[in-house]
Design a protein that fits this description.
The complex is a heterodimer of chains A (103) and B (173).
Chain A lengths: L11 E6 L8 H6 L12 E8 L6 E3 L10 E2 L4 E2 L2 H7 L9 H6 L1
Antiparallel strand pairs in A: 1-2, 2-3, 4-5
Chain B lengths: L3 E10 L13 E5 L7 E11 L6 E2 L1 E8 L2 E3 L7 E5 L12 E3 L2 E3 L2 E2 L7 E3 L2 E2 L4 E5 L6 E4 L7 E6 L8 E11 L1
Antiparallel strand pairs in B: 1-7, 1-16, 2-8, 2-15, 3-13, 3-14, 3-16, 4-12, 5-10, 5-11, 5-15, 6-9
Classes of the chains: A alpha+beta (103), B mainly beta (173).
Chain lengths: 103, 173
C-alpha cells in the first residue's frame, strides 16, 4: 500500500441518514448514482468526497466503483468524469475553475 | 475567520425545475461580491427533512446561470445568516444571502456547471456533506455562473414539495 496513494486521501465526507425514514425508492437511487440499498429505509450511507479543481464541483466517491478515477496530470489530482471527458477534446486548454472565473 | 452559517428553518421548498427563475422562499441563494472578485468557500451543507409523510426531496446546490435581481435582505425568523465566531467581524466585501428576490436566481442546467446532489427522503432523512480543506464548493466571479450558487428542491431531480431545515456553512475571503 503506497503511503501517499491518492486513493487513501479521505477528503470530504457525506452522510445520508435514513435510519428513521422510509428512504428513497430504487429508481431514484439509481438515477442519482446510488445503489438502492445505500439510501433505502433504515440505511445510513457514508462516503468520502473530493473537489474537482476544473469545475469547482464536488464528487461523491462511489465505494463500489471498479474503473479507475480520472486524474489530471497537470493538476496531479482527481477530477470529475465530466471534466475528464472535456479534457480529451483536441482543442482543450487546461484551466482551473478559479482561473476561469477570474477571466 | 469570517465563517458564517446561512440557515433556513421550517421552510417549505416547493419543487421547481432547473433552468427556471425560482420564486421566493423556495431557495437559498449565496452571491459573492463582484469586487476583486470575492472568493467564497462552501464548507458544509446539511438538509434535515421535516415533511410529515414520505416525500422525495430533490435538493441540489447549483451554480446560478442567471443571478437574482434585487435579492431581499433576510428579515424573517425563518432564516438567518451569521458569523460562527460571535466576536468576529464581517468582511468589507459581503456575501448576499437571500431566500427571496424580485426575480429569483436560475439554477443552471449546463452540463459543464457543477451540481451537488443533496437528495433525501424529507420524512426523517438527513443529508450532510462536509468538505475537506482545499476541496470546498467554490463561488467566485463577477458574473454568472461563478458568482452565485443556489440551493433548492429540483423537480428535475425528481423532487416534490418538501419542508426542510437547511444550513450552509461558508467562508468568504
Amino acid at each position: 500500500m503506497a503511503p501517499f496513494s491518492r486513493n487513501l486521501y479521505q477528503g470530504g465526507y457525506v452522510n445520508i441518514d435514513h435510519s428513521a425514514s422510509p428512504g428513497m425508492p430504487a429508481w431514484w437511487a439509481r438515477r442519482h448514482g446510488y445503489l438502492p440499498h445505500q439510501v433505502a429505509e433504515g440505511s445510513v450511507y457514508e462516503a468520502d468526497t473530493y473537489g474537482c479543481p476544473h469545475c469547482g464541483g464536488v464528487v461523491v466517491k462511489n465505494p463500489e466503483r471498479q474503473r479507475p478515477r480520472e486524474i489530471c496530470f497537470k493538476c496531479n489530482t482527481f477530477i470529475c468524469d465530466t471534466c475528464a471527458a472535456i479534457s480529451r477534446h483536441p482543442d482543450y486548454v487546461h484551466r482551473l475553475f478559479v482561473q476561469l472565473v477570474e477571466k | 475567520m469570517a465563517k458564517r452559517i446561512f440557515t433556513t428553518k421550517g421552510q417549505t421548498f416547493n419543487a421547481a425545475a432547473d433552468n427556471t427563475a425560482l420564486t421566493s422562499v423556495i431557495f437559498m441563494y449565496l452571491l459573492a461580491s463582484a469586487t476583486a472578485p470575492q472568493l467564497v468557500d462552501v464548507l458544509e451543507c446539511k438538509v434535515s427533512g421535516m415533511a410529515s409523510a414520505s416525500t422525495l426531496g430533490g435538493f441540489v446546490l447549483k451554480r446560478a446561470s442567471t443571478n437574482a435581481t434585487t435579492p431581499t435582505a433576510l428579515s424573517t425568523a425563518s432564516a438567518s445568516d451569521g458569523l460562527l465566531l460571535p466576536t468576529g467581524t464581517a468582511l468589507a466585501s459581503t456575501v448576499t444571502a437571500a431566500i427571496a428576490a424580485a426575480t429569483g436566481p436560475i439554477g443552471s442546467n449546463a452540463v459543464t456547471d457543477a451540481t451537488l446532489d443533496l437528495g433525501l427522503n424529507g420524512f426523517g432523512g438527513i443529508f450532510r456533506w462536509n468538505a475537506a480543506p482545499g476541496q470546498e464548493w467554490k463561488i467566485q466571479g463577477a458574473a454568472a455562473p461563478g458568482q452565485g450558487s443556489v440551493l433548492y428542491n429540483s423537480s428535475t431531480s425528481s423532487g416534490v414539495n418538501c419542508a426542510a431545515n437547511i444550513h450552509i456553512i461558508y467562508e468568504p475571503y
